[in-house]
């Protein structure tokens, strides 16, 4: 790496948040979202990538801990889904209810978006987010 590229890399690292810096805001946002969507503990854990029960409760209690990139990515998709729903449905209750309603779109095959999201695969969170982004236009 030449000196110029090295200076750019050093400067960039000062402006990009670390995973540790994102942990507390990500967890606060996730647990507010889970409350808003009335998610059971099992659903919350599944959406977060099935962390051990003790880890999950530590995150919930302390809003701190070590979140891996996978968990941060999952929370990011979930927050994007929430945002899309708020834009698509002017009534917040309707936006929240959409998540659990059966959907006849081939993507969901008569199941709810939440059922798809609870498969455990981060790709399913991406697919739901992508679907809602497309609906927004």
From TrEMBL:
Residues 23-80 form the Antitoxin Xre-like helix-turn-helix domain. It comes from the Bacteria. Residues 85-137 form the Antitoxin Xre/MbcA/ParS-like toxin-binding domain. Pfam families: Xre-like-HTH, Xre_MbcA_ParS_C. InterPro entries: Xre-like_HTH, Xre/MbcA/ParS-like_toxin-bd. This is Antitoxin Xre/MbcA/ParS toxin-binding domain-containing protein. It comes from Rhodanobacter lycopersici.
């Amino acid at each position: 790496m030449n000196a110029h590229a090295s200076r750019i890399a050093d400067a960039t690292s000062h402006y990009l948040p670390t995973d540790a810096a994102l942990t507390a805001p990500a967890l606060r946002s996730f647990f507010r979202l889970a409350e808003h969507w009335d998610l059971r503990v099992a659903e919350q854990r599944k959406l977060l990538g099935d962390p051990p029960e003790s880890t999950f409760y530590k995150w919930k209690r302390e809003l701190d801990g070590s979140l891996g990139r996978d968990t941060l990515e999952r929370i990011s998709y979930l927050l994007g889904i929430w945002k899309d729903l708020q834009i698509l449905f002017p009534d917040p209750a309707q936006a929240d209810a959409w998540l659990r309603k059966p959907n006849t779109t081939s993507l969901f095959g008569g199941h709810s978006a939440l059922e798809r999201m609870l498969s455990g695969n981060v790709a399913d969170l991406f697919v739901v987010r992508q679907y809602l982004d497309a609906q927004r236009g």
